[in-house]
Specification:
The chain is built from 6 helices and 10 strands, in the order E-E-E-H-E-E-E-H-E-H-E-H-E-H-E-H. Strands 1-2-4-3-7-8-9-10 form an 8-stranded mixed β-sheet, with helices on both faces. The chain has a two-stranded antiparallel sheet with strand order 5-6.
Amino acid sequence: MEIRGPLELPALREDIELSTADELTLVGELALPQKTAPVATLVTLHPLPTAGGFMDSHILRKAAGRLPALADLAVLRFNTRGTTSQRGTSEGTFDGGAAEQFDVAAAMDFVRDRALPRPWLLGWSFGTELALKYGREHDIEGIILLSPPLHRATAAEVAAWARTDHEVVILVPEFDDYLRPAEAQDRFAGIPHARLIAVEGGKHLWVGESQTRRVLTEIVAAVNPVALPLATHWPR
C-alpha cells in the first residue's frame, strides 16, 4: 500500500506525561521503532497553539507515524502548556514562548531519563522559536527548523548558534507567509555552519503529500541519511 496521508506504520507507541520545573504536567506520545533500537531521537515542537498548532499538527503526526518504521527514529511529541489535542490537554497557560522554556526542558529531561539516543529538536513555525531560544541549553545533536517565522527569537539568540557545534538545518518554503528564502539567507547569515534549504513550491503549512515527503526526507537526510531514500510503499 502507498504510504501517504495519516497512515501509521508499525511502531511502539506510548502515551507519556512530562513534568515541568514549574510543576505542570504535559501530555504527549513517544513512538519507537518496533523491532530495533532507535538510532536517533526527534523531539518535536509544534506550531503556535493560539493558531491551531498542537502535537498532532500534520507534519509532526506523520513524522511519528512513518519515521520509526522507515528510518529507525524515536519521535517524541507533546502539547506545550495549555495546548489540547486528542491525547488530552497539557496543564498551564500559553505564555507566548517564555515559560515554554520549561516545557522544552521537561522534554529533554524525559529523553535523558529514557536514555534516548542522539536527540534533535524539530521545530515547526512557533516551535522553531523555542528551538532557537532554548535549544542551546540542552544536550542535543542539532536543530531542524521548519518554516521559521523569526517573530520571537532575537537576532542575538539566532547569532548565538554560531558559537556552538550543533548542527542547524533550516527548511524555508518558497512561498512562506512570514519568511521567504532570500530574507532567511540574510537573517541566518550569522550562523556560518547553518544549512538553509529553500524548498521550491513550498508553503508555510507544507500541505500535500509531495511537501510532506520532501520535509520528511530532509529530516532523515540530517539525522539518519543511511535510511534514504524513504520507502513510498509498505507491505500489506
